[in-house]
Design a protein that fits this description.
Number of helices: 10
Strand order of the largest sheet: 2-6-7-1-5-4-3
Distance between the termini: 67 Å
Strand content: 15-25%
Number of strands: 16
Structural class: alpha+beta
Shape: elongated
Order of helices and strands: EHHHEEEEEEEEEHHHEHHHEEEHEE
Radius of gyration: 30 Å
Length: 420
């Protein structure tokens, strides 16, 4: 299993200039290769990756592109690999081989993009020095804020500069699955907006509403940016301040999702959640709150950590009426508006809407898991009793039936009937 480990970088002023040159070289190589591919397509021919690589080598020898030699060749080759991957994903999406929404064709990269990145592989011989610094070819030793040690030798590292002018190193490492001790508890999770998550064991996770709480600060940052002249130094400073405010919101939301997803996976052997259509919910009037909650990121983290730590994870169909069925007797109470947070079943049970849904999600997940494991989910065939030879309505008792049968009609709740 491959994982990414991200760490904050603190380059010096000269190292920032070297990184900016590397970002620019990778961008130019990507754009030149994209232009060559588009021209070849217009002429009705196909251009291979080997031809693009040879064209890059020849470009380094020309006066117009001689400055490409100041950057590591691995960075430039990885830019060509990124273009090849982008086209591969585009063709797979158009042909239906790639799941999810359609992907557009690759576009030219702009120097005004606030997010830049380059990648070094093992061929570049990047290393972590004895002084715990990241040594990159033609850039130097960069200080790293190590929050933990890498579990193995990284296969590649991606240097990222985000919109807030922060630098990060993203290492790709190979890790082995480390199953946690077996737990007897299983949990179903019902996600919501009023309360972020309600677990079947009764635990409630409050919604942090990170974006809502930061709206006042973001509004001031937007106002300050709008009052600056575009292209000036003050405009650049205001833009960075706004990007940092949004970055803090994203980091807080990600930290919240990491902490609670880890706790849920550690405490439970199996986790079941509802397969929500976040994209569809984001088109409603609740779009801002849905995006602020970060359901998709939270579910993805649970799924990834469950696979890593040997836990079971399953998604329940989004069409399953988890909030409509009584978790005690199984009777369907019908659809209920969102403002109804609790309801009483005809069996006398008083249900909290979210807790009842979480219990039903747990039961549905357990039933699906047993069915997938080959367990018996329906009773075996048995010979019919004499008084059960047929199914009859309560108003047309069969003739010749011996004995007495008393029950309740499913189509007429509360109506008792007798067969004599």
């Amino acid at each position: 299993m491959q994982l990414r480990y991200n760490f904050r970088l603190y380059p010096t002023r000269s190292q920032k200039q070297s990184l900016a040159q590397a970002f620019g070289c990778a961008r130019v190589v990507f754009n030149d290769a994209l232009a060559a591919r588009r021209q070849a397509y217009a002429e009705g021919r196909c251009i291979s990756n080997a031809e693009l690589s040879r064209a890059l080598t020849q470009a380094k020898q020309t006066p117009e592109r001689a400055w490409l030699a100041k950057t590591s060749s691995v960075v430039l080759q990885q830019a060509l690999a990124d273009l090849n991957t982008a086209y591969h994903n585009f063709f797979a999406s158009m042909s239906g081989k790639r799941k999810g929404s359609k992907i557009a064709a690759p576009r030219f990269r702009s120097r005004r993009d606030h997010r830049q990145s380059i990648r070094f592989t093992r061929n570049a011989r990047f290393t972590v020095t004895a002084a715990d610094k990241l040594r990159l070819p033609k850039i130097g030793d960069i200080a790293v804020a190590w929050s933990r040690r890498l579990p193995s030798q990284p296969s590649s590292v991606t240097i990222i500069k985000d919109a807030a002018d922060r630098y990060f190193a993203s290492f790709v490492v190979e890790v082995t699955t480390c199953p946690l001790p077996t737990s007897d508890s299983e949990v179903g999770i019902d996600l919501g907006l009023t309360r972020f998550a309600v677990l079947s064991n009764g635990k409630i996770i409050d919604n942090p509403r990170v974006l809502r709480r930061a709206e006042r600060k973001l509004k001031r940052a937007h106002r300050a940016l709008s009052r600056r002249r575009k292209g000036s130094k003050n405009y650049a400073k205001a833009r960075v301040q706004l990007a940092r405010a949004y970055g803090k919101v994203a980091d807080t939301r990600r930290d919240f999702a990491h902490k609670y997803s880890t706790a849920i996976v550690r405490e439970n052997q199996a986790v079941y959640v509802e397969d929500l259509c976040v994209t569809g919910l984001a088109r409603t009037r609740l779009a801002k709150s849905v995006h602020d909650a970060g359901w998709g990121m939270f579910i993805r983290m649970i799924e990834e950590k469950a696979a890593r730590y040997g836990r079971s994870f399953a998604k329940i169909s989004r069409w399953y009426p988890s909030s409509q069925v009584c978790s005690r007797c199984g009777a369907a109470g019908g659809s209920k508006p969102l403002q109804i947070r609790s309801w009483t079943c005809r069996c006398g049970a008083v249900h909290d809407r979210d807790h009842n849904a979480a219990i039903n999600i747990l039961a549905a997940g357990q039933a699906e898991r047993l069915s997938a494991c080959g367990a018996q989910v329906s009773p075996t065939a048995m010979p019919a009793q004499r008084v059960e030879a047929g199914t009859h309505r309560y108003d047309s008792a069969p003739l010749g039936v011996r004995g007495l049968y008393t029950g309740e009609d499913a189509k007429h709740p509360g109506l008792s009937f007798q067969y004599l």
